[in-house]
Amino acid sequence: MSQQQTEVGDRGHGFVKALGTVDALFIGFGAMIGFGWVVLTGEWLSGAGTMGAILAFVVGGIIMCFVGTVYSEMVAAMPHAGGEHNYLIRAMGPKVSLFGSWAITGGYISVVMFEAVAVPKTALYLFPNLEHIKLWTIADFDVHLTWALIGTVTAIIIAWINIRGVKLASLVQTFVVSFLILVALMLLTGGLVGGEAVNAEPLFTGGAAGFIAVVAVVPFLFVGFDVIPQSAEEIKLPPAKIGKLVVISVLMAITFYIIIIAMTSLAMPASELANHDLVTADALATMFNSAFWGKLVIAGGLAGIITSWNAFLMGSSRLMWAMAVAGMLPAWFGKLHPKYRTPINSIIFIGILSALAPFLGSAALGWIVDAGSPAIVIAYFLVSVGFIILRKREPAMGRPLRIGGKGNGGMVIGTISAVLTLALFILYLPITPFSAQLAWQSWAMFGLWLAVGIFFMFRLPTGIKAGPNAEDELLAKVKSLRKK
């Protein structure tokens, strides 16, 4: 038996292997296609112009392709639940592993909370008379009880589906992603049949600042391919194939977003974009001259909410479970449901956060996006660095999928991924004229989440070196300390 097979066999944690090729692919792709394409497309077009926005997604997508390629080798080598947690603890030890895993868990949860706020916002488009019993006003938005409860009830339902098991969650994912693809094809048809090329002008606007503002949201919109590694122990495929699905899902998402931006731009003049709250929906309604098609896009938006929400609840709960099992977080987060074999307490914790999010109002959408994006990029950078370290320190490690061939191609890819993700993170810092402008609420959310992670990080026992046995050594020390 090979080293890789031995590692996989030794790391079974009782998860049910229920996911096939389409299930795994649609989990990753569906995670990347949330609700942002419905509510934010108008901002992208206004801020950067048609070609500026498309170029921003191509550039951001290329960055994500490099990161996804790095992930593909890592998940094939270590196909265990928890993804980043496993890669980082082996490459850089427990403290860095906790910091990076906690950062991307925050990014995942930010997406879950975003979708919880997006649900009532979408429902209001379909049913205008949903706002009753005003609670308070946040950032000029009146929060009504009936509006917020729509998001809260949906949060409870999504959490219940995930507790019931990964197979049920994946069935929901596959069905809804199929509908999303249908909506994208309808937009493509509408743009080709009813669009006007002159409406796509101006092709560029906003200069470098407008372009960077769009690039800055790409990590939030593309995060999701890495949910596949989180569920690796529940995928019944060879490790190398799991790795390839990561890259394929990224390419599918790039294609989807380019179609959405291009076809929406053809529907109406740029001067009219500001008059539409949900531009993509109104675009299809305009091209087919019927309100029905706008409602179809909104239905697609709801589908995107479900796929993204479902996938990130799945990924974040597995990450919290992995950290708890390793002794990094309280053991409470590491409990599996006795019947469904899902991380029930982690799902409940994240479900509660998402159930509360709608009570922050519609303004929370922007805050949450901006708070989650830099946290996600931190994790991508650390995984890229960890990839380089493992290539140098453990050249003989089992790698069923070795990117870049037998030479130094893999090191080049890993280095490019590390440099690009570091540059992307610098864009968030207010140190250049072109930096992304994050609201103080976003920095507060980002800082608070990282502060909690740092608190847990400094509670870890010291003296544990990175390597294949790091997690076992950490857990042994934690158990010893808990007995005292």
UniProtKB/TrEMBL annotation:
<feature type="transmembrane region" description="Helical">
    <location>
        <begin position="145"/>
        <end position="163"/>
    </location>
</feature>
<dbReference type="InterPro" id="IPR002293">
    <property type="entry name" value="AA/rel_permease1"/>
</dbReference>
<dbReference type="Pfam" id="PF13520">
    <property type="entry name" value="AA_permease_2"/>
</dbReference>
<feature type="transmembrane region" description="Helical">
    <location>
        <begin position="245"/>
        <end position="270"/>
    </location>
</feature>
<feature type="transmembrane region" description="Helical">
    <location>
        <begin position="96"/>
        <end position="119"/>
    </location>
</feature>
<keyword id="KW-0812">Transmembrane</keyword>
<feature type="transmembrane region" description="Helical">
    <location>
        <begin position="344"/>
        <end position="365"/>
    </location>
</feature>
<dbReference type="InterPro" id="IPR050367">
    <property type="entry name" value="APC_superfamily"/>
</dbReference>
<feature type="transmembrane region" description="Helical">
    <location>
        <begin position="21"/>
        <end position="40"/>
    </location>
</feature>
<keyword id="KW-0472">Membrane</keyword>
<feature type="transmembrane region" description="Helical">
    <location>
        <begin position="443"/>
        <end position="460"/>
    </location>
</feature>
<protein>
    <submittedName>
        <fullName>Amino acid permease</fullName>
    </submittedName>
</protein>
<dbReference type="GO" id="GO:0005886">
    <property type="term" value="C:plasma membrane"/>
</dbReference>
<keyword id="KW-1133">Transmembrane helix</keyword>
<feature type="transmembrane region" description="Helical">
    <location>
        <begin position="371"/>
        <end position="390"/>
    </location>
</feature>
<feature type="transmembrane region" description="Helical">
    <location>
        <begin position="175"/>
        <end position="194"/>
    </location>
</feature>
<dbReference type="GO" id="GO:0022857">
    <property type="term" value="F:transmembrane transporter activity"/>
</dbReference>
<feature type="transmembrane region" description="Helical">
    <location>
        <begin position="206"/>
        <end position="225"/>
    </location>
</feature>
<feature type="transmembrane region" description="Helical">
    <location>
        <begin position="411"/>
        <end position="431"/>
    </location>
</feature>
<feature type="transmembrane region" description="Helical">
    <location>
        <begin position="52"/>
        <end position="75"/>
    </location>
</feature>
<keyword id="KW-1003">Cell membrane</keyword>
<feature type="transmembrane region" description="Helical">
    <location>
        <begin position="290"/>
        <end position="313"/>
    </location>
</feature>
